């Protein structure tokens, strides 16, 4: 693996999932793989789970991990080519990224979209510029349009649940991605990425449900079934992945914000005792009710804990490639 930006960087999803679950069984089994190697985790936006799980994963592989919050600690970065830097940006990524490339062996980046300019966001300008100028493998900790470490974790968590549940074995599970209300416009990254990974994994019947006008980029949703009636979509579901996103077509807006789309116990009763997932952080009693989040079908804490094993499996693959050079 030369980089980890999207599912397209993964040759074999089931094998990566198996590696992650093997690390869960024995976290220190590759404790020397990352010796004398250093990862720089560069945050342009806030994070709790991604930041901590990546640090833990790196440590369990014997790597040194340095976290740098550009937004708080560093100079404001410029990303546009040929920019006349007479505004607020102080340092061009063209100057900063090669330095990261000298300090680190792997560069991990978290950026968010502006939600103002679709073309800019969907061109993945920020992460592309880091890849272009750093000269070392780049790992996405969430970009403008995708969150691959989260999505790998989600597939790991679904596979783990299937492995533990005879009733889910020997057939294709039904997975539903269900839009939820929110108080502010959020990126489409998690939903795009989840759709991209479930489609590439190919082991489930996949349904996406949301109010009209929240259609995602078909590049990511592929052949998933779109169902505007949430109750119909939830019928017989084995896994429900709840997430808000803002509009993609008329970019970054909130249209319908009907609280009736919040997942409650009443809605969950329509499913096949579905496991409930969410990437977190979650707005309680806006996206999901307390009764669902605190109930027996919620696997959100397990999902978040699995972030470590996803990060460790991906870092191990990147390290193997570096060591072969
Ligand atoms: N799910 C997720 O990426 O969480 P953080 O924003 O806390 O990293």
Q: Can you put this structure into words, describing what you see?
A:
The protein is of the alpha/beta class and 325 residues long. It has 2 domains: 7-146 and 307-324, Rossmann fold; 150-304, Rossmann fold (3-Layer(aba) Sandwich). The protein contains 14 helices and 11 strands. The strands form 3 sheets. A 5-stranded parallel β-sheet has the order 9-8-7-10-11. Strands 2-1-5-6 form a 4-stranded parallel β-sheet, with helices on both faces. β7, α8 and β8 form a beta-alpha-beta unit. α2 crosses α14 (307-324). It is globular and about 55 Å long. The model has no long low-confidence stretch (mean pLDDT 97).
DSSP summary, beta strand count:
11
Q: What level of helicity do the residues show?
A: 25-40%
Written as H for each helix and E for each strand, in order along the chain, the element string is HEHEHEEHEHHEHEHEHEHEHEHHH
* Separation of the first and last Cα atoms: 12 Å
CATH arch. level architecture of the largest domain: 3-Layer(aba) Sandwich
Strand order of the largest sheet: 9-8-7-10-11
Largest β sheet strand count, sense and barrel closure = 5 strands, parallel
Number of helices: 14
The stretches of 5 or more residues where confidence is low (pLDDT under 50) are none
CATH class of the largest domain: Alpha Beta
The CATH superfamily of the largest domain bears the name Aspartate/ornithine carbamoyltransferase
CATH topology of the largest domain, what is it called? Rossmann fold
Ligand inventory: phosphoric acid mono(formamide)ester
Secondary structure class reads alpha/beta
Beta content comes to: 5-15%
C-alpha Rg (nearest Å) = 20 Å
Number of domains: 2
Q: How would you sum up the global shape? A: globular
């Amino acid at each position: 693996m030369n980089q980890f930006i999207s599912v397209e960087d993964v040759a074999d999803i089931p094998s990566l999932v198996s590696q992650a679950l093997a690390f869960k069984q024995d976290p220190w089994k590759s404790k020397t793989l990352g010796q004398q190697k250093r990862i720089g985790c560069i945050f342009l936006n806030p994070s709790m789970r991604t930041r901590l799980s990546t640090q833990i994963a790196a440590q369990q592989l014997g790597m040194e991990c340095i976290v740098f919050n550009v937004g708080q600690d560093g100079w404001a970065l410029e990303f546009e080519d040929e920019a006349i830097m007479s505004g607020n940006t102080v340092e061009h990524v063209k100057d900063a990224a090669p330095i990261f490339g000298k300090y680190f062996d792997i560069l991990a980046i978290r950026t968010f979209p502006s939600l103002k300019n679709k073309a800019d966001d969907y061109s993945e300008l920020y992460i592309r510029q880091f890849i272009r100028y750093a000269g070392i493998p780049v790992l996405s900790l969430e970009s403008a349009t995708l969150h691959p470490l989260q999505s790998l974790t989600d597939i790991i968590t679904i596979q783990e649940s299937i492995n533990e549940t005879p009733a889910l074995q020997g057939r294709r599970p039904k997975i539903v991605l269900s839009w939820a209300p929110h108080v502010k416009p959020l990126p489409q990254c998690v939903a795009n990425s989840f759709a991209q990974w479930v489609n590439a994994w190919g082991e489930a019947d996949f349904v996406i449900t949301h109010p009209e006008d929240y259609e995602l980029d078909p590049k990511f949703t592929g052949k998933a079934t779109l169902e505007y009636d949430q109750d119909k979509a939830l019928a017989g579901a084995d896994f429900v992945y709840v997430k808000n996103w803002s509009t993609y077509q008329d970019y970054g807006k909130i249209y319908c914000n009907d609280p009736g789309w919040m997942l409650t116990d009443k809605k969950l009763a329509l499913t096949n005792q579905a496991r409930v997932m969410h990437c977190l952080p979650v707005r309680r009693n806006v996206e999901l009710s307390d009764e669902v989040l605190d109930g027996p079908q919620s696997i959100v804490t397990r999902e978040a804990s699995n972030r470590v094993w996803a990060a460790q499996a991906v870092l191990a693959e990147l390290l193997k490639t570096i060591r072969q050079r």
